[in-house]
Amino acid sequence: MTGEVVTVAPDTSVKAAAGILADRGFAALPVLDDERRLVGIVSEADVLRGRVPADPRLRLRRDVDTGAAPPPESVGLVMTTEVRTAEAAADVADVARLLVEERLRSVPVVERGRLVGIVSRRDLLRTLTRPDDDLRADLLRLIAGYAGRLGGWDVAVRDGVATIQRPRSTPGSDDGALRTLARTVPGVVEVQVSPTC
Known about the structure:
Layout: H1 14-24, E1 28-32, E2 38-43, H2 44-48, E3 86-87, H3 92-101, E4 106-111, E5 114-120, H4 121-128, H5 132-147, E6 154-158, E7 161-166, H6 175-182, E8 190-195
Parallel strand pairs: 3-4, 7-8
Antiparallel strand pairs: 1-2, 4-5, 6-7
């Protein structure tokens, strides 16, 4: 999650919001009221809608005046008010599912209605690209805390798949707890636990 989020207010001009989106490479900006409550989100599509006039040189009748009203000037008039959000304590797997199933590029993260961050697909992709050696080191620390020692444990990680071999003296009933513990490491995608050969 990104904690320092660039935001706009409802009275921010659409042109200013478009500039932020273009300059920063964002797909959308959270819109906050004076009390930092999330009131909407303004996307690239929102600022483009009705703002790119047809080229009169490419039309058969160049003298046609559509008489359309000028596009809205403030973010509050073009933003989406029904925003999909994630709670700060949400499971990352649920957030990933929301991003994929709803085809969202990012989701504002809120706590008691106030914006605390934003999580994007790119943020989640970064966890999947963590080096296997880092994942292994994290797992070893967790196992040492769980078991009290590392003697007899063998941990390997390849492409995010963790293989934990426990000492034969450790009961097999601990396997479920070890799988659960290992899945708390960002970047671990699967866990296999077995006794040491």
